[in-house]
Amino acid sequence: MATIGYSAALEQFHPNELLHYCQLAEQHGFRGVLAADHFQPWVPQQGQSAFVYAWMGTLGATTNHTFGPGVTCPSFRYHPSVIAHAAATLAAMFPGRFWLGLGSGEALNEHVVGGVWPEPLERMEMLIESIEIIQRLFSGKPVRYRGEYFKMEKVRLYTLPDTPPPIYIGATGPQTVRYTGQKCDGLITPAAGPEKLRGILDNLAQGARDAGRDPGQLRRLLQVHVSWARTQEDALQNALTEWPNGGMSFPKQDIRSPEDFAAMAKLVRPENFQGRVLISTDLDEHRAHLQSFIDLGFDEVHVHNVGRNQEEFIKVFGEEVIPKLT
User: Fold this and answer.
1) What single string gives the DSSP state of each residue in 267-306?
2) Measured between alpha carbons, how far is 107 from 163 in angstroms, rounded to an integer?
3) CB-CB contact of 9 with 43 (8 Å)
4) Is 204 in contact with 224 (CB distance < 8 Å)?
5) What digits encode the pLDDT tens for the residues 10-65?
6) Alpha helices in the chain (DSSP H)
7) Residue 159 contacts by C-beta under 8 Å, 6 or more apart in sequence?
8) What is the DSSP string of 1-49?
């Protein structure tokens, strides 16, 4: 069976509170954590945004499952060498458990360093250079880099794991997904309709084949947003209040502030969550929803319940949903 993981929303919860939820999730059958890397929450109501790399050190020391950031942009707030350094340390401390999720970034988190926010193609080119730097540093050999976007003096990493952590790319677009299949170890993508997801997985496999790689060796991770509560009214209100960004179908990479998202959230209606956040009290419906992604071929499905009712969600899903998945 696929791994059912817990999606840790650092945008919503104090890091100590969220650490407790991750520990509880492990006790109730969740077998991994996908941790949000945000500088700011999506909307002010969410209220938090702890530094994920500090938090993951404690997560690794107090749990036994796999974990990683979903996802880090190694191109603006961080130089890629800094992310290579952080990732190598976590992988050395927690062998076989840490994976590195990377993506091309969103202005909400990356514009804090100022400057012009590039177009998508340029951000993709920056991500490719960043991955090259990180992979070379993981080799343990001295590396000097001179690219179009990044420069690095001749350096090497001294603290290294026995095996480099796998690099998973957060992507949906065909070009980035095919690149992932060619150069990286796996894919992180958000839940969507079956046809769209089949297309994404096909592009991943094609990229691997183009590079002479076995698609079956790539890891496929999915993040699923749901809103479960005891009543339908509560489940809907949780989505509207706590996760209105889940009802926004337009691209969000260029929006710069939680206040801007909050203004847009006023336009979100219940029907806007259709196909994006499953809002339901029916545990069988949630089970079928998760099973559909496993049947498509995803190796890990990380579930984010958007409400504040995390303890109840974890216990109920651990007892009534996860054991019934195949």
Assistant:
1) T--GGGGTTTSEE-S-HHHHHHHHHHHHHHT-SEEEEEE-
2) 33
3) no
4) no
5) 999 999 999 999 999 999 999 999 999 999 999 999 999 999 999 999 999 999 99
6) 15-27, 52-62, 80-93, 107-110, 120-138, 174-183, 194-210, 232-242, 258-265, 283-296, 310-320
7) 88, 89, 92
8) --EEEEEE-TTTS-HHHHHHHHHHHHHTT--EEEE---SS-SSGGG---
Name residue, tokens 């992604």.
293
d(CA 105, CA 75): 8
Residue type, 15: P
> Which pLDDT score is estimated for 14?
98
Q: Of the residues 106, 110, 129, 300, which is catalytic?
A: 106
Q: Catalytic one among 38, 85, 286, 304? A: 38
Catalytic annotation on 106? yes
Q: What is the pLDDT of residue 1?
A: 78
Q: Are 10 and 225 in contact (CB under 8 A)?
A: no
pTM: 0.97
Domain of 274, in residue numbers: 3-324
CATH classification of the domain holding 314: 3.20.20.30
Q: Which residue has the tokens 């941790």?
A: 35
How far apart CA 56 and CA 68 sit, in angstroms, is: 8
For residue 253, what is the DSSP state? T
Domains of the chain: total? 1
What token pair was written down for 303?
């579930």
